[in-house]
Amino acid sequence: MRAATQVAMILSLGAALAGECASAWAAQPYEGFWASTHKDCRDQDSANRMSIEGGNRFYWYETRCRASQITPEGKLGWTMKLACEGEGEKYRSNPRVSIAADGKLVMDNGPVGQAKRQTYVRCEIAKKR
To answer: Which residue from 114, 109, 63, 50 is spatially nearest to 89, judged by alpha carbons?
Structure first.
């Protein structure tokens, strides 16, 4: 096979794979910065803040988790399996994450907090110039 034909085939395959995986790379509605209150949004040291990045990485004050087996439940709900690490311990959690009608993020059976349900407001973080 000629080199030009091989390159064209490789580029076509790459484009096809990129198209199949594009939804996996798209930002999820639950990504961003969240906190228990708007006051906690402004406090960078608050234990009540959370960041969700890349669709599967969750960060709290002293806890970090990586999600797998993310399954949509309805339009704005997901169940997932979390592998977590915090305060020298490793553990697992199986939360349900959803976006409520008022825009708040609700986490049932989450890995942090005293209650079985945490509710977070979205934090508007100013972009650095």
So the answer is: 63
Token pair 């030009």 is found at 4
* Burial classification of residue 109, based on how many CB atoms lie within 10 Å of its CB (0-12 exposed, 13-18 middle, 19 or more buried): middle
| 74 in any annotated domain | yes
| Number of domains present in the structure of the chain | 1
Backbone angles phi, psi at 105, to 5 degrees: -95, 130
Report the predicted TM-score, pTM, of the whole model to 2 decimal places.
0.74
Tens-binned pLDDT, residue by residue, of the chain (129 aa): 454 444 344 444 343 433 333 344 568 999 999 999 999 999 988 999 999 999 999 999 999 999 999 999 999 999 999 999 998 999 999 999 999 999 999 999 999 877 889 999 999 875 554
Query: Does residue 38 belong to any structural domain of this protein?
Result: yes
Domain holding 35, by residue range, is 27-122
What is the number of alpha carbons within 13 Å of residue 89 lying toward its C-beta? 8
